[in-house]
């Protein structure tokens, strides 16, 4: 209990933390005390924890293997080509910082925003968005370099990292007796809806209940979505300034305004690193400030229109919630799109990044093709998941003389095989994927197949 001498030490219980949360949050914020999970927590956690449900989600995410792997996954530039390029992990931490700022300022649930932000890219592939695009082309039958059974392709669906992130936390992570991390529905929903999504997207979401697929995301998830967009474009620009030069960046209208506003501070900054920091800091500050101010106005307007004045009334209107209440102003969105267009034209489409994307596509295509043709190359854990999801026999237990016939038969026609191969590749780090490619295709591999690289 928290009770003690006035001014003395305290130890707040979960119930007290929830009461504090309820007292300080805006009426439109998500409450941890009202959250839902697909399964009950372990008995030892009942009544003895000092965390709210969203704080528990955050901790489960941070302790997951998928979170640790983000350290070795590309954002835009390959990490081992420079010590200071962002990885998927550093991007995640930066998104989390922006999301918490927005959530705190708007009176939203900061813990929920943090959990959604930390998990939003858990399903991302190696090699950044180029790896994601390669897997989607393969699964949808659009990659001529990977010949798959039309029947299997028809049943497997597509690939998108936000859906894969939900699959990671619902199924692929193994920390408990049952699959997944057993996160709250609110965190799961924020993970899915942090970027574009469709109710009928062809992806095997295991448990759509609680994801509110017929309505927009809760406001914490909307804050994470824009935090992701702002952090991604600003920091991709920062990482790419070595390609285009800081002078070139002044072609961005907002950048010109920031430089003009800095005046002597900009002109007197002889160190390019200081100029870079001033510019990026200014971009983020402007975009985040606009997002907060515009969102407050939009939320207030919606609450008034719906005649919502209490948390209970807001909960009753939950299914009417638009997906764009936390969003920049028209001018703020225009400035954001101008920044994004510059980043895509001069950095994402640059020769250096295009070369990386081409290598990534080659590696993903060849790995997938090799696994599909000869599933014996897959780890036992992947083969076991195929057996569990499809009813096919565990491949290692089939007599050697019959293996080829079995693979050529039901294995080639089974969508679960392709989905599990996609799971395996999506979970790889850049270094693991390159090492696996080397082990399978190099004449003298530098490491045994199936062993971690690095």
Account of the 3D structure:
The chain is mostly helical. 59% of the residues lie in helices and 0% in strands. It has a domain of 111 residues. It has 20 helices and no strands. The longest helix has 35 residues.
Walk me through the topology.
Blueprint: H1 14-24, H2 53-62, H3 65-69, H4 88-106, H5 110-119, H6 128-139, H7 150-156, H8 161-172, H9 185-192, H10 219-244, H11 253-262, H12 264-267, H13 272-306, H14 311-316, H15 330-348, H16 351-373, H17 380-390, H18 400-413, H19 415-426, H20 430-441
Helix pairs in contact: 2-5, 4-5, 4-10, 4-13, 5-9, 5-10, 6-16, 6-19, 7-19, 8-9, 9-10, 10-13, 10-15, 11-13, 13-15, 16-19, 16-20, 17-19
Question: Strand percentage, roughly?
Answer: under 5%
Largest sheet: none
Total count of helical runs of at least 4 residues: 20
- Principal-axis shape equals globular
The total strand number stands at 0
Computed structural class:
mainly alpha
Distance between the termini: 47 Å
Order of helices and strands: HHHHHHHHHHHHHHHHHHHH
Poorly predicted runs are: none
**Mean pLDDT across every amino acid position:** 90
Q: Which percent range fits the helix content?
A: 55-70%
* Spatial extent as radius of gyration: 24 Å
Which structural traits does this protein have?
454 residues; mainly alpha
């Amino acid at each position: 209990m928290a009770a003690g001498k006035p001014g003395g030490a305290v130890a707040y219980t979960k119930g007290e933390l929830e009461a504090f949360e309820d007292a300080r949050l805006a009426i439109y914020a998500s409450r941890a005390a009202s959250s839902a999970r697909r399964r009950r927590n372990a008995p030892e956690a009942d009544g003895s924890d000092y965390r709210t449900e969203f704080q528990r989600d955050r901790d489960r995410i941070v302790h997951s293997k998928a979170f640790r792997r983000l350290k070795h996954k590309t954002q835009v530039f390959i990490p081992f080509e420079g010590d200071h390029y962002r990885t998927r992990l550093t991007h995640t931490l930066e998104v989390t910082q922006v999301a918490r700022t927005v959530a705190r300022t708007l009176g939203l649930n900061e813990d929920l925003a943090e959990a959604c932000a930390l998990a939003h890219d858990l399903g991302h592939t190696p090699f950044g968005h180029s790896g994601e695009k390669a897997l989607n082309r393969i699964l949808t039958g659009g990659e001529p370099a990977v010949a798959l059974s039309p029947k299997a392709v028809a049943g497997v669906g597509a690939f998108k990292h936000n859906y894969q992130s939900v699959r990671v936390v619902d199924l692929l992570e193994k920390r408990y007796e049952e699959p997944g991390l057993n996160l709250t529905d609110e965190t799961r929903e924020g993970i899915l809806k942090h970027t574009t999504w469709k109710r009928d997207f062809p992806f095997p979401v295991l448990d759509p209940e609680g994801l509110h697929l017929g309505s927009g995301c809760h406001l914490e998830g909307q804050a994470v979505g824009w935090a992701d967009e702002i952090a991604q474009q600003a920091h991709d620009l920062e990482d790419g300034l070595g390609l285009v030069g800081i002078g070139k960046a002044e072609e961005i209208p907002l950048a010109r305004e920031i430089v003009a506003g800095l005046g002597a501070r900009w002109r007197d900054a002889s160190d390019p690193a200081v100029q870079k920091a001033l510019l990026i800091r200014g971009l983020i500050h402007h975009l985040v400030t606009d997002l907060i101010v515009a969102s407050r106005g939009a939320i207030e307007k919606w609450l008034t229109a719906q005649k919502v004045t209490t948390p209970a009334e807001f909960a009753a209107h939950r299914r009417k919630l638009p997906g764009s209440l936390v969003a920049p102003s028209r001018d703020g969105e225009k400035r954001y799109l101008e920044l994004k267009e510059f980043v895509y034209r001069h950095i994402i489409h640059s020769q250096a990044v295009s070369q990386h994307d081409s290598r990534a596509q080659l590696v993903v295509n060849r790995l997938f093709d090799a696994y599909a043709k000869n599933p014996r190359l897959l780890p036992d854990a992947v083969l076991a998941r195929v057996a569990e999801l499809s009813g096919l026999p565990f491949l290692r237990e089939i007599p050697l003389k019959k293996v080829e016939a079995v693979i050529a038969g039901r294995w080639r026609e089974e969508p679960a095989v392709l989905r599990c191969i996609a799971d395996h590749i999506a979970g790889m780090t850049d270094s693991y994927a390159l090492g696996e490619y080397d082990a399978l295709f190099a004449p003298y591999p530098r490491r045994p197949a199936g062993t971690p690289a690095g």
